Amino acid sequence: MPALGPEAVEHPELRGLTSAYFDRYSMEGRCKRCGGMGATVSPDPDSIVTRPDLPLLKGAGAWFDRAHSGEYLALPALAERYGAHLELPWSELPEAFRHAVLYGTGDEPVTFRITTRQKKSGSEATVERSVPLKGALAEITRLHETAGSESARQHYAAFMRRQTCEACGGTGYGDVARTLKVGGLTYPEVILKPVEELYAWAQTVEPTLTPMQREVAATFLPDLEKRLRLMTALGLGHLQPLRTAPSMSGGELQRARVTAQLNMDLTGIIFVLDEPSAGLHPADKHPLREILTGLRDAGNTVLLVEHDPELIAMADWVVDLGPGAGREGGTLVASGPPEQVQRVPDSVTGAYLAGRGPRVRRPRRRDAATASRLDLVGVDVHNVRLDRVGIPLNTLTCITGVSGSGKSSLLHDALGAGLAATLRGEQPTALTRIEGTQGLDWVTVVDQDPIGRTPRSCPATYTKAFDLIRKLFAATPRARDLGLGAGTFSFNSPGGRCETCTGYGKRQVDLHFMPDMWVECDVCEGRRFTPDVLTVDYHGRSIDEVLTMTVEEAAEFFTEPKALTTTLDAMRRAGLGYLQLGQSGTELSGGEAQRLKLANAILQGSGGRSRGMVLLDEPATGLHPSDVQRIVDALDVLLDSGNSVVIAEHDLHVAACADWIIDMGPGAGNRGGRIVAEGTPGRIAQGHGVTARCLRPLFQD
Question: What is the pTM of this model?
Answer without folding.
Answer: 0.74
